[in-house]
Amino acid sequence: MNKSELVLEVEKVNKYFHDPMTIHVLKDVSMQVARGEFVSITGKSGCGKSTLLYILSTMDTDYEGELKIDGEPTRMASRTRLARIRNEKIGFVFQFHYLLTEFSVLHNVMLPGLKLGMKSREEVEHRAMELLDDLGIADQARKAANQISGGQKQRVAIARAMINDPLIIMGDEPTGNLDSRNSDIVFDIFRKIADEHKRSLLIVTHDQDFAARTDRIIDMDDGRVIT
Amino acid sequence: MRLLATIALTLLRAKLRQSIVAAVGVMFSIAMFVTLLGFMNGLNELLDGLILNRTPHVRLYNELRASAEQPVELAYADSAKGTAPIHHFIRSIKPKDDLPRLRNATAIMDVLEKDPRVLAVSPRLVAQVLFNVGTTDLTGQVNGIDVMQEVRYYMFQDYLVEGDPNDLANGNNTIVLGKGLADIMQARIGDLVQVTTATGDRTMLRVVGYFQSGIADYDKVQCYANIKTVQKLLARPASYYTDINLKLHDLEEAPEMAKELAARFGVQATDIQTANAQFETGTDVRNIISYAVGVVLLIVAGFGIYNILNMMIYEKLDAIAILKATGFSGSDVRRIFLLLSVIIGIVGALGGLVVGITLQNIIDNIPFITAALPSVTTFPVDYSIRYYVIAVTFALATTWVAGWFPARKASHVDPVEIIRGK
Ligand SMILES: Nc1ncnc2c1ncn2[C@@H]1O[C@H](COP(=O)(O)OP(=O)(O)OP(=O)(O)O)[C@@H](O)[C@H]1O
Ligand SMILES: [Mg+2]
To answer: Cα B68 to chain center, whole Å?
Structure first.
């Protein structure tokens, strides 16, 4: 694997929680994700998948080890820089679809794009509509974010993760709330952005069928990567 | 920045009721501040004006007093050199028969007219007289004035409750009586009153108006006539004046100028600050009290904003976490909440100005009639723009500070904690 092609590099990451007692949640986790690679993470509930994903997304900085995103070490980066990296290079879909209830569906998708400021408002809006259309919820665009179903929210969150065309999309069970038909739609979209747009995906899932169809499965158990 | 403002506005709209409560708090305090200070200062100006309008900034006059050096002392001054001091035994030396006239008054006035610090020079001739009413005599003081000059610079017409200043200026042997004095004498306009001067000369003067200063004792004694009439009354020449009154461009220069002029012309000079020290103190105290009350009101409103913003942040933790997760930095979040606070402040301040100015207008229209203040019919209000500017500036500063702490807290929210907490 060409070094420069690595979007994500994790080197011996350890994570502890100290409250109520010290527990060692991630143990010497090392992994790499190449450009255009579609990777899934599986493992038992409570084995540390979400915890790992928060570290990889640069939101959690309280860990030991080394994390590089697009070749850039994040250990010493300022918070503002990390925010910029999240905005520009990482798309994140939470385990529980998090939307801003004060904003419309469309606006939720647009916000990270407006923040990045690379495109005009019209372009961002156009792109957001395209994504919503791909995910089959274009008709919900003008609704308030709390007026749609759980599955629809999850798809809005996926559209939002994709708005800035990030290098890598991380998802914490992004299809957990979807029926198999919509789950397939999401899988196909992920497949497409990996193959055609050369974007990487790192998706935590409990769905074995979903995992089986990805390029690579990282299996975790009790805070360790086993494959 | 526009994006952050949109987000702030959207969050505001979602919490419209709380935001309105916070803005109303600011509005209330601004309105009270503006009303209170406008009213207080209106009163201050009224009370000050009562004295200050009519008081010259510097008054030059000549007081009768014993000579500092008696001729007998001067006579022996030289021969006393080197020897023991010589004592004389002359006692009860009387002052010279030197009426309280200002010598060289015309020359002094010419010099003062050219002084760039001086706004107006007006001479006066004050005469002590007796008004003969039937069998009794009432003491009075007739002030010979340059009527038009007094109208222009000392608000003479404001205190003229009846009559026309022109009648006084142009008439021969006309007089304006103090209201209190006129009441005692039962003198109507057009009546003739008989006046006796200190030297015993009698003259008949025609009443053309009443003067009411608002100070009862003053109004029982003081009368006004034009300067020529008084000169004639006293049988003195046209250059005979007892006072020269100065109005300056800058009131603050008065004490210094009084000293300077006294030394230069060899006359007595008093300045307005010395003559009316107690009024300044009263004004200051009233000002301090009203500013203190106003500032306290604004601070209380600030605490209101602080509380509401804190509550809002607690309710918006999810939103903050999402914003941060999708690439908004801590300082973006801080700015959003600061903006939120400042928007509340601006809306409240503008509303407060509108309410405050309305209240000022209402107060300004409440009747306030008192015999002591003939020219006043409603409560006084000072519509000075200064209070609006202070109020708005302070409101914005308060909301900024009140918003800063919650905003900083919001910027420190750890998104992982919130997201994992679900
Ligand atoms: N804030 C916390 N404080 C202490 N322990 C925590 C905290 N968050 C998570 N843990 C513990 O860390 C371990 C890993 O949790 P994590 O959420 O990463 O599991 P997960 O693999 O995502 O599980 P699931 O598949 O159910 O989402 C769990 O044992 C959990 O109890
Ligand atoms: Mg999890």
So the answer is: 39
Give me the CATH code for the A3-225 domain, please: 3.40.50.300
Q: Spell B299-312 as b/e; 16+ CB within 10 A means b.
A: eebbebbbbbbeeb
**Minimal CA–CA distance to A160: which of A89, A87, A91?**
A91
pLDDT at B98 over 60: no
Question: Which is the closest atom of ligand 1 to the Cα of A49?
Answer: 21
Residue in the block written with tokens 């007219």:
B113
Distance, CA of A47 to CA of A151 (rounded, Å): 25
| Alpha carbon distance B203, B209 (integer Å) | 18
State which H helix or E strand residue B205 sits in: strand B202-211
pLDDT tier, A201 (very low <50, low <70, confident <90, very high otherwise): very high
CB contacts of A87 in chain B (<8 Å) are 326-328
User: So what's the pLDDT on residue B13?
Assistant: 87
| B421 in A contact zone (CB under 8 Å) | no
Average pLDDT, chain A: 89
Nearest to B402 by CA among B6, B25, B7: B25
Query: Band of the pLDDT at A179, cuts 50, 70, 90?
Result: confident
**Between B10, B324, B422, which is nearest A83 by CB?**
B324
Ligand 1 pocket (Cβ < 6 Å) reads A 17, 19, 25, 45-51, 95; B 420
pLDDT digits (tens, 9 = 90+) for B340-366: 888 988 999 999 999 999 999 998 888
Half-sphere exposure of A7 (CA within 13 A, CB side): 24
ipTM over 0.85: yes
The model's pLDDT over B28-71, given as tens digits with 9 standing for 90+, comes to: 888 988 888 888 888 888 877 777 777 888 998 887 666 666 66
At residue B178, the 3 state secondary structure works out as: strand
- Per-residue pLDDT, A168: 93
Q: How far apart are CA B66 and CA B177, in angstroms?
A: 34
CA distance B74 to B71: 5
- CB–CB of B420 and A103 under 8 A? no
Q: Compute the nearest-CA separation of B416 from chain A (Å).
A: 6
Residues with CB under 5 A from ligand 2 (ion): A 50
Distance CA B254, CA B118 (A): 10
Going from N- to C-terminal start, the domains of chain A cover 3-225
At residue A6, the 3 state secondary structure works out as strand
Q: Cβ A86–B13 below 8 Å, yes or no?
A: no
Cβ distance of A98 and B419 shorter than 8 Å = yes
| DSSP-derived secondary structure letter, A104 | B
> Between chain A and chain B, how many beta carbons pairs sit less than 8 Å apart?
74
Say if A212 is an interface residue toward chain B (CB within 8 Å). Answer: no
